[in-house]
Amino acid sequence: MRIERVDHEGPRASAQALRALIPGGASVRPQVAEIVEAVRDLGDAALLDFVARFDGGTPPVRVPAEAIDAAGTALRGDVRAGLEMAMANVAAVAGASLGDDAELNLPQGQRVRIRELPVRRAAIYAPGGRNPYPSTVVMGVVAAQVAGVEDIAVCAPGAHATVLGACALLGVDEVYAMGGAHAVAALAYGTESVPRVDVIAGPGSLYVQEAKRLVSGDVGIDGFLGPSDLVVLASGDAEPGLVAIDLLAQAEHGEGTVVALVSDSADLLSAVETRLAESDDTGAVAGLVRVASLEEGCAVVDAFAPEHLSLAGPSAEALLGRDFLAGCVFVGAVAFGDYVAGSNHSLPTGGAARFASALSPRAFRRRMAEVQIPEADALARAGAPLARAEGFRIHAESMEARVRENEVP
Fold first, then answer.
1. Active-site residue flag, 278
2. Average pLDDT, the chain
């Protein structure tokens, strides 16, 4: 692990220095654009070529349902129990986030019904480059199921047995053994063997996330969920060993991952640095930021807007409830949130926590209004002059045509 001391003047400069440690999507944009264009234009002819080159797979891309069922049956007992706990907790938290439909009768006589509806097809991307991620399958599929999506596909490069087992537990029998930009393009545009979807959700490599960004005008996405990051805001009364192991745990995500410790305690920073220096090299980068106070530390956190924020030590934990700019805030091991705590681990990265949220059923739902206008008189009197003021004569005439005779405004 590379360790960087970040000693800059002020929270914003410190956050910018941390941000500079995160690789950006621009570095892979030309290659991704070429792959997406090929799959969009050529369909399976390009997709199967990319699957052979990048995934090491051979047709068919879709995993047979019998293989998924067999993987579910073969799951080790403790793994099955962990997945089932994750499924139940994620479903409970996701269900609490859904809103109700509403119907309004307005003074001019019109009735407006607001409906929130699920998209018809969604795909969950579960990364498989370094390790299989059955937990990502749970996070994405449960959120989509709670949203009411009927057709859910899982994209799982390598089609690892544990991932297929999780799909079996969740009742998903549409799984594609492919990954990367070509997989995203196939899901967005459809090929002869892969039906297109309405929403693609899930974390992945820079190639995957850049592809999601490229196709986002043609399909819904949950956001740019790129390399992982974690900031631990720790007071001097934090336990160095626990802080270090939380940073190292997140660093397991490998190259591109940025972890940071922000603290007002020089002793804590030094103790944690010693433990990090003794760790195996994962390709991640660790930033160590000394601040004058926890209040200044909060400013660094907000300027960085981390995917994960951990509050460590009684003094820092007392800040829980503050409106931090973060994807998810933890008191306790962040790793619980990756698996069984109930919160979703698909979180905004790269500073997007300033405006984006964790994956939830809302990513798979759309709001639609149904409008009934039994009496048009009052609305036409108000609307027709506005339409004419904008130069839309026929808009005005369309409204006026619904007015009763002798009541034309």
1. no
2. 91
CATH number of the domain that 183 lies in?
Answer: 3.40.50.1980
Domain count, the chain: 3
390-395 contact pairs (CB < 8 A, 24+): none
Active site residue 400: no
135, part of any domain: yes
Residues 389 and 331 in one domain: no
pLDDT in tens, 314-367: 999 999 999 999 999 999 999 999 999 999 999 999 899 999 999 999 999 998
369 located within any domain: no
Q: Is the peptide bond before 60 cis (omega within 30 degrees of 0)?
A: yes
Which residues form the domain of 11? 2-23+227-343
Which of 174, 210, 307, 317 is the catalytic position?
307
Boundary residue ending a domain (225, 241, 271): 225
Which of helix, strand or coil describes residue 325?
coil
- Same domain (yes/no): 242, 175: no
What's the predicted TM-score (pTM) here?
0.87
Q: In what order do the strands lie in the sheet with 2-6?
A: 2-6, 285-290, 258-263, 229-234, 308-312, 328-330
> Closest Cα to residue 201, out of 236, 181, 225?
225
Model confidence over 64-85: pLDDT tens digits?
999 999 999 999 998 899 899 8
Same domain for 141 and 73, yes or no, is yes
Whole-angstrom distance, CA of residue 266 vs CA of residue 272: 10
Residue that terminates a domain, selected from 207, 225, 243 = 225
With cut-offs at 50, 70 and 90, classify the pLDDT of residue 406. very low
Task: Tell me the C-alpha to C-alpha distance, in Å, between residue 400 and each of 110, 184, 371, 393.
Answer: 15, 48, 17, 11
Amino acid at 1: M
Strand partners, 309: 231, 329
Q: Do 19 and 52 fall within a single domain?
A: no
List the catalytic residue out of 308, 317, 345, 400. 308
Looking at the fold, whether 148 and 158 belong to one and the same domain comes out as yes
Looking at 90-99, 184-193, 201-210, which range is the least confident one? 90-99
Closest to 143 measured CA to CA, from 319, 364, 311, 314 = 364
